[in-house]
């Protein structure tokens, strides 16, 4: 309290629940919640588990038993599986996963038991503050411009070319390493610059805001999007369209 006013100790957005007022800080580490979709990078291969960097205070854990085996077979994990762990995922690999449990110290346990999760192939990773990613029913979006995005709740955003056919057999281990066409690379670069400009102007990230920003940026060259005046102009246009849509 200061001069009969409530003053927050951190800068951020205010959230009210009845008489409880919380301030969600703009720059935070990711705090895991069960069911969140996250994008993470493998940092270490340990006994029966992988350590994953997910932008939280502690490394997350992906257990060998919490993932599909190649081919989708269901059986107990044997010593051979443990020896072959580096063949599935090794240090530096990017994965998409779901939060299975949150431990008392805040560490997060992940699982990739669905075919939509698993190892990520070719694309671009953008790191933003987790507070700017809007929570939605789905965080996997195939955008009409020809690329797809995974909006990780942990602030890691993965942009990749939309696959022509979904690979069901591999169980999420086969990374497609064919060359990406120039047109796809341009779309991905434009989306990446649009996301960076939305983040700079503190706009929430979700499929509609990214798509509107992409459409607003089309008259400009990809490299020009990051110029401050053009960035402001594009984001203003996106804001207007979102307001019109809501209003």
Automatic annotation (TrEMBL):
SUPFAM superfamilies: Eukaryotic type KH-domain (KH-domain type I), Nucleic acid-binding proteins. Residues 123-163 form the K Homology domain. GO terms for molecular function: RNA binding. Keywords: Exosome, Nucleus, RNA-binding, rRNA processing. Residues 29-100 form the RRP4 S1 domain. One of its GO terms (cellular component) is cytoplasmic exosome (RNase complex). It comes from the Eukaryota. GO terms for biological process: CUT catabolic process; exonucleolytic trimming to generate mature 3'-end of 5.8S rRNA from tricistronic rRNA transcript (SSU-rRNA, 5.8S rRNA, LSU-rRNA); nuclear polyadenylation-dependent rRNA catabolic process; poly(A)-dependent snoRNA 3'-end processing; TRAMP-dependent tRNA surveillance pathway; U4 snRNA 3'-end processing. InterPro entries: Exosome_RNA_bind1/RRP40/RRP4, KH_dom_type_1, KH_dom_type_1_sf, NA-bd_OB-fold, S1_RRP4. It is found in: Nucleus. Belongs to the RRP4 family. PANTHER family: EXOSOME COMPLEX COMPONENT RRP4 (PTHR21321:SF4), PNAS-3 RELATED (PTHR21321). This is Exosome complex component RRP4 isoform X3. It comes from Sapajus apella. The gene is EXOSC2.
């Amino acid at each position: 309290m200061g001069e009969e006013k409530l003053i927050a100790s951190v800068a951020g957005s205010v959230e009210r629940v009845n008489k409880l007022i919380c301030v969600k800080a703009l720059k935070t580490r990711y705090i895991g919640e069960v069911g969140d979709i996250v994008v993470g990078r493998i940092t270490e291969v340990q006994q029966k588990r992988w350590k994953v960097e997910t932008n939280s205070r502690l490394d997350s854990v992906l257990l060998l038993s919490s993932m599909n085996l190649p081919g989708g077979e269901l059986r107990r994990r044997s010593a051979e599986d443990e020896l072959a762990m580096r063949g599935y995922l090794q240090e530096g690999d990017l994965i998409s996963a779901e939060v299975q449990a949150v431990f008392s110290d805040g560490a997060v346990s992940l699982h990739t038991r669905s075919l939509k999760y698993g190892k990520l192939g070719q694309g671009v990773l953008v790191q933003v503050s987790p507070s700017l990613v809007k929570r939605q029913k789905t965080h996997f979006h195939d955008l009409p411009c020809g690329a797809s995005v995974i909006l990780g709740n942990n602030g890691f955003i993965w942009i990749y070319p939309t696959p022509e056919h979904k690979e069901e057999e591999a169980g999420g281990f086969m990374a497609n390493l064919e060359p990406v066409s120039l047109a796809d690379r341009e779309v991905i670069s434009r989306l990446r610059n649009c996301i960076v400009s939305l983040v700079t102007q503190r706009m929430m990230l979700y499929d509609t805001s990214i798509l509107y920003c992409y459409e607003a940026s089309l008259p400009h060259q990809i490299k020009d999007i990051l110029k401050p005046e053009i960035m402001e102009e594009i984001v203003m246009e996106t804001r207007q369209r979102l307001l019109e849509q809501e209003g």
